[in-house]
Design a protein that fits this description.
The chain is an alpha+beta fold and 116 residues long. The protein has two helices and three strands; from the N terminus they run αβββα. α1 runs antiparallel to α2 (77-111). The longest helix has 35 residues, at 77-111.
């Protein structure tokens, strides 16, 4: 591994500052996935039992991990719209944090070069 140049170190510091500023712009964050489903009701005489186009819905299901276990919950269409944005925000924040970590590694290597 080579020692980062002064220019590389400066870019890393600037990138971290940019990430820190950007993180404050996010209001809602949620992990997980959101799916839209059409479902059968289970009544044998209902049209949904034989015709896939007659299924009920759409229903929106939010699935995430809580305490190491998958948790599913149905949400309204309005909640699904908000959750969709919050999930996108969460993914963007995670990407920024990975970038922050990479730039931090550059700074650490500049301050204290790695041992051979």
């Amino acid at each position: 591994m080579t020692i980062p140049s002064k220019r590389s170190v400066q870019r890393a510091r600037e990138r971290i500052q940019g990430i820190r500023a950007s993180l404050g712009e996010f209001e809602l964050l949620c992990s997980g996935t959101l799916s839209q489903r059409m479902m059968k009701c289970g009544k044998p005489n209902c049209g949904c039992a034989t015709d896939p186009a007659a299924r009920h819905g759409p229903y929106y299901q939010w699935v995430r991990t809580r305490a190491g276990k998958p948790t599913a919950r149905y949400v309204s269409e309005q909640q699904a719209q908000i959750l969709s944005q919050a999930i996108d925000n969460y993914r963007q924040v995670k990407k920024m944090l990975r970038d922050w970590e990479e730039n931090t590694e550059r700074l650490i290597d500049a301050v204290q070069p790695p041992a051979p």
